[in-house]
């Protein structure tokens, strides 16, 4: 759990720093630092689902052999 919290703080810090440097605004930096990790979390969920699907053994060759 400590590693997860540490990574979250690091991610927030990087997101804030990049947004602040690009815009010069503490407000925009803070908003981006909150929004970007939230969106990234949702994207990661779907990435994992696709990854699991691609890693699952395919039954297509067996089905094609039965149908052929």
Ordered list of secondary-structure elements with their pairings:
Layout: H1 2-23, H2 26-55, H3 60-67
Structure, explained:
By secondary structure, the protein is mainly alpha-helical. It is 88% helix and 0% strand. The longest helix has 30 residues.
Structural class: mainly alpha
- Unreliably modeled segments: none
Q: Using DSSP, what is the number of strands?
A: 0
Q: Helical residue percent?
A: over 70%
Beta content: under 5%
Order of helices and strands: HHH
| Rounded Rg | 20 Å
Mean of pLDDT:
85
Outline type: elongated
Task: Describe what is shown at a glance.
This protein has 68 residues and is an all-alpha fold. The chain has three helices and no strands. The termini are far apart.
